[in-house]
Design brief:
Elements (H helix, E strand, L loop, with lengths): L7 H22 L13 E3 L3 E4 L4 H7 E6 L7 E7 L2 E8 L7 E6 L7 E11 L6 E9 L2 E8 L4 E8 L2 E9 L8 E8 L2 E6 L2 E7 L8 E7 L3 E10 L13
Antiparallel strand pairs: 1-2, 2-16, 3-6, 4-5, 5-16, 6-15, 7-12, 7-16, 8-9, 8-15, 9-10, 10-11, 12-13, 13-14
């Protein structure tokens, strides 16, 4: 849950309204009810920005889709959990191994040029650990992804085409896996810039995927990871540098 929304009482009112609406839906219509009140945002910020707070399971089900690249393995279980930031979304259980990627994809598509950022925490995993961001996804088998792996001490950018992952860039990063870290990507045309905790790391030029696409969260194999404060900004809301997305 975000500490400061920058939109004051309006954000709090919208959050409380959606939580109450979801509760009433379940009580009146039953546990199978899904509330669809628009994107999972706690506020619609002027200038072209969206904040995805993942504060309620109903929003997770209605606006995001659990998917997988590779397999066949049972789909990972993503759920809204209480955490030290309030509430976050986490990979609570995964059965993947090897080249199996657990993906949480938005059901709607977003603009092609933007800054996308998220807080993430590496909670566990023996074969793999950490996670990352997906953008310009056509489906669960075609997309860009940048990920942080504290076991390998690096941040990388990949393109995934027909389920096959190809590395585009890599940078060494040594970071304590216990606290939360900020991962961000700025996509402008065929140019992609990645930062970690506000520090610019990678710059890639690749035009495999262009135009509108889905965004998402990503882990590999048995990595158990928590995510919070997913933010997307575009147009006039874009800052001059991806390092400012923190």
């Amino acid at each position: 849950m975000r500490r400061e929304l920058g939109v004051g009482r309006w954000a709090a009112a919208m959050r409380n309204f959606r939580i109450v609406a979801a509760w009433l839906c379940v009580v009146v219509l039953g546990a199978g009810c899904v509330v669809n009140l628009g994107p999972i945002t706690q506020a619609k910020i002027s200038g072209g920005a969206r904040y995805f707070g993942f504060d309620h399971a109903a929003f997770l089900r209605s606006q995001w889709r659990v998917a997988q690249t590779g397999g066949p393995a049972e789909l990972a279980r993503w759920e809204v959990q209480e955490c030290d930031r309030g509430r976050c979304v986490a990979v609570a259980e995964t059965h993947g191994a090897g080249q199996v990627y657990n993906v949480l994809l938005s059901r709607r598509e977003f603009t092609d040029d933007f800054v996308l950022s998220v807080f993430l925490r590496a909670d566990g995993g023996t074969e793999d650990r950490g996670g990352g961001l997906v953008w310009r996804a056509e489906c669960a088998h075609d997309y860009y992804v940048t990920r942080w792996n504290p076991l390998e001490n690096n941040v990388r950018v990949y393109r995934v085409v027909d389920g096959q992952r190809e590395e585009l860039a890599s940078a060494d990063v040594t970071a304590d896996p216990t606290p939360w870290h900020r991962l961000a990507v700025r996509a402008t045309g065929a140019h992609h810039e990645v930062s970690f905790d506000g520090a610019p790391l990678l710059s890639v030029d690749d035009a495999t995927f262009s135009g509108r696409g889905r965004i998402g969260l990503w882990t590999k194999a048995d990595a158990r990871t928590s995510f919070d404060d997913l933010e997307l900004a575009w147009g006039e809301s874009l800052d001059g540098d991806v390092k400012n997305a923190r």
